[in-house]
From TrEMBL:
Coiled coil: none annotated. Residues 14-107 form the Myb/SANT-like domain. It holds the Pfam family Myb_DNA-bind_3. InterPro entries: LIMYB, Myb/SANT-like_dom. This is Myb/SANT-like domain-containing protein. Signal peptide: none annotated. Transmembrane segments: none annotated. It comes from the Eukaryota.
Amino acid sequence: GIRRNDGVQEEVVWGAIVEKLFIDVLVDHVNKGDMQNGQFNSKVWTEILNELNMKSGRNYTKNQMKQKFHRLRAKHRIFSNLLQTTGFGWNPITNTVTAEDSVWTAYIQKVKNAAQFRRKGCDHYDLLGLIFNRSTATGGLHHSSGLEPPNSDEERRLDEEFVNTGVHVNLEDDNDNDGEDPMTTQTFERVTRSGKRTICQNTRISVVSIDTT
């Protein structure tokens, strides 16, 4: 099987193009209303698998596909949590998360998988948000009849971590903001090169500037 955190094997088995195909198929089924409580039932999973294999020319198993789904969900959660942590900002021009090196170092010590976002953002984050945000993915542990329960310890762990953490951060710079966007109420502590600390209230991540004074 595919070992989690094995980036080389992950790239060989999936790759960027097929990953995007998979995400597009998932979004299509979410838009159809096929996701209930953050889960697809067995019938829908079979449809997704058939579509993915037809479009990609590959021969994935349902287990491979569901493991990939859980990894994408964990990736979305880690990135969302990162953006909501004090000290981190977002630069939409370079598509990167901004923070002082000391802030990154401390955070990665606590959340090792966050290191993947130090040089670039989360690929297809907006699309992943359509799949994994609160409105479509609440109650990750509620496996009702017709929904397949997690089939591995890894999936159970991801489900447990996901409960109440399906928060998606809007990275768009919307001038018509109504003040309810969590991005406008986040507080950022910015440290200048001279060591001076400033608290920036109501700073949108999408327009965070780097203070080099």
